[in-house]
Amino acid sequence: MHAIYPGSFDPVTMGHIDIILRAAAQFDELTVAVLINHNKKGLFTIEERLDLLRESLKEYPEIKIESFSGLLIDYAAKKGEPVILRGLRAISDFENEMQLALANKNSNRNIETLFMVSNPKYSFLSSSLIREIAAFQGDVSNLVPPAVEKALRLKYKEGL
């Protein structure tokens, strides 16, 4: 079975990596799909996010890393209607994720959304929290992969 784990990954965190590795063990094929959102300016470019994911997951060549734009449900249909995998950190995530899952199901009844609960160790993590800590030169070394930590230091050292 094929699954897609979509997100902005700006930047990828250890919480994301945990979900990715656990999902890779459950599915025959896993694609990590980075959303290109033209309405949002990210800290990292799409190319940088893809590179950071590839570097962070280089020991797992079986995990595919791609980008997409437009509706996730359309991207999933083009990929052969795999499962959409979403991570849940807290109860507060559930309402929004459930709404998106139901909208996707309304658009394509053949595509299922599965939820994977975050490891409690990472349940407080978000990319926006990482960006905020890094902006003030805080220590994120145990919250992001080494390549991401280095990229954050460079990004904020150069000044946005």
Give an overview in words.
With 160 residues, the protein is an alpha/beta fold. The protein has a single domain (2-158), classed as Rossmann fold, CATH 3.40.50. It is 44% helix and 19% strand. The chain has a 5-stranded parallel beta sheet, with helices on both faces. The longest helix has 17 residues, at 91-107. The N and C termini lie far apart (41 Å).
Provide a concise account of the structure shown.
The protein has about 160 residues and is an alpha/beta fold. It is about 45% helix and about 20% strand.
Structural class: alpha/beta
Cα-based radius of gyration, to the nearest Å:
15 Å
Number of helices: 6
The CATH first-level class comes to: Alpha Beta
SSE string: EHEHEHEHEHH
Helix share, percent = 40-55%
Give the tags.
160 residues, Rossmann fold, alpha/beta, 6 helices, 19% strand, single chain, five-stranded parallel beta sheet
